Amino acid sequence: MSEIKNIIFDLGGVLIDWNPEYLYLKVFEGDRKKMQWFFEEICTMDWNENQDAGYPIEQATEERVRMFPQYEDWIRMYYGRWEEMLGEPIAETVEILNQLLKNTDYRVAALSNWSEETFPIALERFEFLHRFEGIVVSGSEKMRKPFHEIYQLSLDRFGFKAKETLFIDDNLRNIEGAADMGIQTIQFRSIDDLKLNLKAKAIRL
């Protein structure tokens, strides 16, 4: 028998296809080298993660424009056209989610690094987000993965015990942060790999 009673899903990259390339490949007319330079030097992932931790989008954008005024139009597109970065649900993992939600053996929640300001767009677009017992959104909590505080907050909020909880995330850094807290983990790499790992942990679908 598995000791897992609770399952926490990450959202972006596990259940929802989000990728800034969807926007900027159009902006840069397919020039991947230019796009990568923009992500590495101007609107970086570290910068984006700051907003995921609750920093105001307008303030972050204006600060970046002052730093790089020659790229103002491209910078403003990051959040001005943010919805174009949002892809479709990842159907196979959503199906696994649905199966777990039907199984009364498990309580199912979510924990995501996501700006509080853009998350309502996802809530409106993706019906399945309303089926979780609850969702911890980093931007609302002013903290983010992989820092220990947000995992502890999630456990406390839902009344989960770490050893009885499984966390699924595509980002190894976030997986390691959860594991440090004694939470069981699966790094999402592919749907087949996820199914094998769930089976190995005796999770019943």
Detailed description of the structure:
- With 205 residues, the protein is of the alpha/beta class.
- It has two domains: 6-17 and 86-200, Rossmann fold (3-Layer(aba) Sandwich); 19-85.
- It is 48% helix and 14% strand.
- The protein contains eleven helices and seven strands.
- The protein has a five-stranded parallel β-sheet, sandwiched between helices. Strands 2-3 form a two-stranded antiparallel sheet.
- The radius of gyration is 18 Å and the shape is globular.
- The relative contact order is 0.19.
- The mean pLDDT is 97.
Brief overview, please?
The protein has helices at residues 21-27, 32-41, 45-52, 57-67, 72-80, 91-102, 119-125, 138-141, 148-158, 172-180, 191-200, and strands spanning 6-9, 16-18, 86-89, 107-112, 135-137, 165-169, 184-187. The protein is α/β, with parallel strands linked by helices and 205 residues long.
